[in-house]
Amino acid sequence: MLIHGEDDTMAPVKATRVLCKRLAEEKVQTVMHILPQTDHAFDLILPKISPSAHNAFYDVERFLALMAGKQKAKEEQQKPGSV
Predict the structure, then answer these.
(1) What is the pLDDT of residues 27-64, one digit of tens each?
(2) N or C end of the chain, less CB within 10 A?
(3) Is residue 83 part of a domain?
(4) Is residue 48 part of a domain?
(5) Which range marks the domain in which residue 71 is found?
(6) Is residue 28 part of a domain?
(7) Which of 8, 9, 54, 16 is nearest to 33 (CA)?
(8) What total of structural domains would you count in the chain?
(9) Which of 48, 61, 59, 73 is nearest to 4 (CA)?
(10) Is residue 18 part of a domain?
(11) What is the DSSP letter of 48?
């Protein structure tokens, strides 16, 4: 999962886009979310009220739930007697 602020001046968003593209080319499951009007370290300053931080936390939770669901399904398939 890649989360990046669109207006990040310390680490340009182009690098994240390139990384996402290269991961996809290698068949690595990747999710990228570019947060509009967001700078570097957006989650460090007032994260309780920052809309960007809220979006990032929500995306991370959804991504982890997705990965946990896939892992559970994989484990179910590997159980003896499963189809």
Answers:
(1) 998 999 999 988 888 777 777 788 888 888 899 999 99
(2) C
(3) no
(4) yes
(5) 2-78
(6) yes
(7) 16
(8) 1
(9) 59
(10) yes
(11) T
